[in-house]
Amino acid sequence: MFIGALVGPLIKEKDWGSTRYPKFHCVDFLEFVDVLAQWVSAIQDSYCKDKAAQNVLSSSALQDLICPLTFLEMQLLLRAVIMAAFKDTQAGVQGLYPFTPTSSTDNQFVPFIASAGTCNIACPDMKLPLAFVENIRSLVARHIEHKPGYAEWFIPILGKYALTELNPATYTFQYAFTDQPVQTLPSFTLPTGIYRENLIDSKTKKTMSKLLNEQPISLIDGAYASGYVAINDTTRLQALSTRWNAWLEQNGLATYSMSLTPLSTDLGVNVLCSVSMTRIVNKVTPQAKERAQQIIDVRSERHAERVCVLNEYNDLQSVAELSQGVILSSPYEMVLKSWILPTVRLEVEGTSFITAQKWQGLMVEPYQIITTAGEQGRSLSYMHSSYASQMVKANLERKNSWEEFFVEMAKLGRGGILSGLVAKMVGSAVPQLSGIADVISDALPI
After folding, report:
1. pLDDT digit string (tens) for 89-105?
2. Burial class (CB within 10 angstroms; exposed 0-12, middle 13-18, buried 19+) of 233
3. Where do the structural domains in the chain lie, given as residue ranges?
4. What is the C-alpha separation between 218 and 99, in angstroms, rounded?
5. 342 and 138 in contact (C-beta within 8 Å)?
6. pTM metric for this prediction
């Protein structure tokens, strides 16, 4: 199935004799969801703090700041965007790797299905922060031709851990009216009573209405209580995308964010290619949790600023980051240490664990950065919060440090000579550069 899905657009005749096996990297979709949701909360908070200082925000205007999409709708829209980025490879890897859960308590990583109702059809024009879009591009499959006859494939697997779900109630923003208690509002529209069904009574011919709640839908295969949903319906997705974009622009929320842009087939900042990297993750031990609670910085209790959202990622920590090539130092590291990389969990319920050393050998990733000291590592929740905060700026600020970085890197690494030297993206983007990569890319880090 893998070869059948990829043979058309990707495999060249000279690759059939390659002795280098493809490297598959798991990309946890819910990490993207968590970062984007925290970014939504952050720009809502920034807007409210700005208006509170001026005392110009009414109660009705406050309600308009709530995202008009439900949390599930945002996830389905974002899924369509990332599936569009991975369209050349997801069909090939959906059944190849990794494992399938064997019980109701087996929290295995499961790839998203690319079937008739769940595959990519068209990419919605959902506007996202520039850094977030670059992060998605950095994880698109790469076919690196180091020299004639020596090539490597790095292929992402988009999916989620089967039992892991994020709670939309954890994403909120606050506003304080003069001489009134602080109000806490949900960042996303609540899923209750959001649809109205109109029924005509067969006898009286009168129209009766009733409100309906949103039904849970699986991000993996589109399943819901009584069947399957075509979650790639372009009409519905475009309607959600239009509503999302209009909400950001009409309320002025976009002015509190770094530049917004839809995903395109652009090659991206190629020097930040991350599909050939792995973040090793494990669970925070109960002992480490207990010790962390013994000493608390009281300064954090005096301020209302959000440190990080408490969710599934609060119990996971980064242990190390591995790479096939040399891990770039500053200024690249300020981005790589925060944004989303392919992950491997050292221990997953229901299966034996794999050590970081074994993974390095299997994936040929000799370079590493240790990100933990003893039992104290960086929680993924904190990393996601840090990531989201880097995509927020003051209202009158032209560009923050991250945006300036990406603008400069785009000049050097997208569409210029560096794009061809480092790697070429799988698919049709910038095909004229492939000949350059054949000869020189082995001399440069990926």
Report:
1. 898 888 765 556 677 77
2. middle
3. 17-265+392-443
4. 18
5. no
6. 0.84
